[in-house]
Design a protein that fits this description.
Blueprint lengths: L7 E2 L2 E2 L15 H15 L23 E6 L4 E5 L5 E2 L5 H12 L1 H7 L13 H5 L10 H10 L5 H16 L7 H8 L3 H12 L7 H12 L2 E2 L1 H12 L17 H11 L5 H7 L4 E3 L4 E6 L3 E6 L10 H14 L10
Helix pairs in contact: 1-13, 2-3, 2-5, 5-8, 5-9, 6-9, 6-10, 7-9, 8-9
This protein binds 6-diazenyl-5-OXO-L-norleucine (DON).
The site of 6-diazenyl-5-OXO-L-norleucine has 13 residues, from loops.
Length: 338
């Protein structure tokens, strides 16, 4: 018999059993949709923050776009707002390429050749390379993500890129394409990431030609996705590596916990601690405005809104996902309705 930990009525948690998250399997469809609708309505008019501008073209994304979606591990969808608008995936791509490295070389390769510690520093930190022995530190910061693409087993840049794109498409369950204008805008201004790639190479922590890794990484970040795609990608992780839409196994079930652990400790960069404190879910953000969070074994919550806070995390998206996780009582450490 299931113990239902969260009973929803009018947006309020009426009952909760700390630590009983794993038993809370029976959230009703109407409650999932109501929670998405409430979060969307609550934050729709929030105007805080600003589009990323260090990649010039991102200033052109209409700032008022906002979409929220839950995708269940069986593919059922509950959504509100602009969930089909395509924006650049940016750093939300990073865990999925880490998954590809796990598939090709095993989960230990990620720990040994990249690292799995949170940096506590911004996503583009060069200082992190100097103060941590692993240099790349983890696959979710820029340094570790550039190292990850350099680790993809390939004999040419074309092959490296096509594996990265195919893998992310497989997670989304549809063929994705690059937003070429985003790629041009980012690659022509990628001086910081070029420095990171070269430093990693210098320290023996980059495993391909640095400029090739930079190009493939930048193309990866320029892939166009919708909030719905991010939800499907997260649902694939919730479904232990099998895409709910296509039925394709995209990664080994055994590697999913390691990947979610890195998302939990480093998915929000230098805000990862407060994110886990408030929402209690492994997640990944991107400066395009997307965020995906995973309720392990159950579903994903994704959102898109271009305005970011100082750490580069989408303000409406993080508020919406945190509220939904709290209302549904699905934080991995137990219900956290505040
Ligand atoms: O390399 C960069 O700076 C971007 N392509 C990605 C950064 C990003 O999305 C950080 N996330 N919040």
């Amino acid at each position: 018999m299931n113990r239902l930990v969260a009973v929803l009525a009018g947006g309020m948690i009426l009952a909760g059993t700390p630590g009983a998250n794993a038993q809370a399997q029976n959230i009703r469809a109407a409650d999932l949709q109501a929670s998405v609708d409430r979060a969307y309505a609550k934050y729709r008019d929030l105007r805080e923050g600003a589009n990323a501008d260090y990649i010039p073209i991102l200033t052109e994304t209409p700032s008022d776009l906002f979409g929220v979606v839950i995708v269940m591990r069986d593919g059922k969808v509950y959504s509100a707002g602009d969930v089909d608008y395509e924006f650049s995936i940016q750093s939300v791509s990073k865990p999925f390429t880490a998954a590809l490295i796990m598939s090709e070389q095993g989960a230990d390769a990620v720990r040994e050749k990249i690292g799995v510690e949170p940096t506590g520093l911004p996503f583009n930190s060069k200082m992190a390379l100097e103060i941590y022995d692993e240099r790349s530190v983890n696959p979710l910061v820029n340094a570790g993500a550039i190292a990850a693409v350099s680790l993809v087993q390939a004999t040419s840049e074309e092959e490296r890129w096509s594996k990265v794109l195919q893998n992310i498409s497989d997670f989304a369950g549809r063929p994705l394409t690059v937003l070429e204008k985003v790629y041009e805008s980012e690659y022509t201004t990628a001086f910081g990431n070029r420095a990171i790639a070269n430093l990693l190479f210098n320290y023996g922590r980059l495993y391909s030609d640095p400029e090739e890794a930079l190009r493939v990484y930048t193309r990866q970040c320029s892939i166009g996705v919708s909030a719905m795609d991010l939800g499907m990608m997260g649902a694939t992780l919730a479904n232990l590596g099998v895409n709910p839409k296509t039925g394709q196994r995209v990664m080994d079930a055994a590697d999913v916990p390691e990947l979610l652990a890195v998302m939990a400790t480093a998915g929000f960069y230098d805000e990862s601690g407060s994110w886990m404190y408030e929402a209690g879910l492994p997640a990944k953000t991107g400066v395009g405005g997307g965020i995906v969070a995973v309720v392990p074994g159950r579903f994903a919550i994704a959102a898109f809104s271009p305005r970011l806070n100082e750490a580069g995390n989408s303000i409406r998206s993080l508020n919406a996902i945190r509220d939904i996780a709290g209302e549904l009582g699905v934080g991995v450490f137990g219900p956290n309705p505040e």
